[in-house]
Amino acid sequence: MASQVISRKNSKKDKFTSFLFVLPYLVLFLGFMFIPLIYGIIISFTDYNLLSSEATFNGFENYARIFDPNSALNSIFFDGLWNTLQFVLYTVPFLVVIGLALALLLNYLPKKITGLYRTIFFIPYAISVSVVSIIFLWMLDTNAGLINNFLMNLGFDSIPWLTKQPFAWVSLAGATVWWTIGFNMIIFINALNEVPEELYEAASIDGAGAWKQLISITLPSIRPAMLFTILMSTIQSFNVYGQPLLMTEGGPGDSTEVLLMGIVNQAFSQREIGTASAMAVLMALIMIIISAVQFKISNKKEKGEA
């Protein structure tokens, strides 16, 4: 009986200790994520202007204005959404495919340089977006950029990397891939390390080449990591803001003015917090729907193969 009482006391003590470890994250999550999220949803149903001291409830009027073709909010939201979707389409496939290719390449390198190889490709991920943008502005400037100077020395015309399409999208996508590819590479490296070597040995004995092993063994074995990488890359690309703001300023014209730029401008330049919150809520819903569809498609393929 005494041992049971002691055991219960130890169990309560362990739970309390575990709770203390979780408490700092819980406080930060509530303070910086959950509470602002709920407050933002509430504000989206109000006519809230930064110049006004009161937020008047107006129901779904902000959302109705977004879907009204005659409203300025309609073009801000849907033009920004289209530009954001373009950015996602231009970056996510490269982030996944190149990340996997870099991870696979690691298997063919000498063990002595694998650590250096991982470090070289991961270092850009630790750089802030402002530094990345400065680096690529220095390289891609039309008149004084490193690349254009090199091309002109070879007798070629300079390329308007940041001032004309499709070069602006190429520049933004290239900068983003260079900046974030290291994270995906590390995810794939860890996933590849979990694939049993016996499967490759058995496949080699059966005469399967490298391509057949990739299709039949590697890709099915790393499917969870693949899904995670696709989802994370999609979410990150959907939240793009710094690169187009600092590199192209939304130009040429407004062809690279992504949705988040429109939301920030509506909130802090136009001071319309209510409509900006409504646009942000719709953006979050779209991201959830896209992620859910990707997850559903992946699960169907996995069940079908099983």
Automatic annotation (TrEMBL):
Please indicate if the UniProt record lists Coiled coil as a keyword: no
> Can you list the GO cellular component terms from the UniProt entry?
plasma membrane
The entry sums up its family as follows: Belongs to the binding-protein-dependent transport system permease family.
Q: Which residues cross the membrane?
A: 20-42, 87-109, 121-140, 167-189, 273-293
Q: Which GO terms describe its biological process?
A: transmembrane transport
Q: Does the keyword Transmembrane helix apply?
A: yes
- Protein's name according to its UniProt entry: ABC transporter permease
Q: Which Gene3D superfamilies match?
A: MetI-like
What coarse category fits the chief subcellular location reported for this protein? membrane
The opening ranks of the lineage are: Bacteria, Bacillati, Bacillota, Bacilli, Bacillales
